[in-house]
Amino acid sequence: MIERHRPEFLDNKPHFINLVISEGGKTLHLSGLVASDADGELVGPGNLAAQMNFIYDNIRRVLAEQGATPADVVRQRVFIVGLRLDHRPVIAAAMNAFYGDGGTAASTCVGIEALLVKDALVEIDVTAVMYG
Fold it and tell me: How far apart are the first and last CA of the chain?
């Protein structure tokens, strides 16, 4: 069972949830992904939206291979090179496109200096809980 809550005393944003409670189930921990294709080529150099969408597409594919969906994701961490406040609409759009109406995950977004893949702008890791 996964429960999502928006405690009214917290600053709740529409593109993530502040509290997720899961009980039982099988837990999937997906390591951080950058926007590299199967050949290691970076997708969307210099384009944060393109990189986020590519990563979320890959996360969706990994989840599907395991019988899960974005609605099963309970935690995500997003690391962005040179994070700025004006990135918020791009980040929110990518998250909303990924999660849709299925419910969002507890989320942390951190600005960093660099990633270990040249010209990568973002890395995302997720944890999902699956039932059945």
Answer: 10
Q: List alpha helices for 1-132, DSSP H.
A: 48-65, 88-99
CA distances from 130 to 13, 28, 91 (A): 25, 8, 25
Contact by Cβ (8 Å): 51, 122:
yes
Q: Report the predicted TM-score, pTM, of the whole model to 2 decimal places.
A: 0.89
Structural domains in the chain, CATH included, are: 28-130 (3.30.1330.40)
Q: Enter the DSSP assignment of 41.
A: P
pLDDT band at 18 (very low <50, low <70, confident <90, very high): confident
Is the per-residue pLDDT at 14 higher than 80?
A: no
Whether 11 shows a pLDDT value over 80: the answer reads no
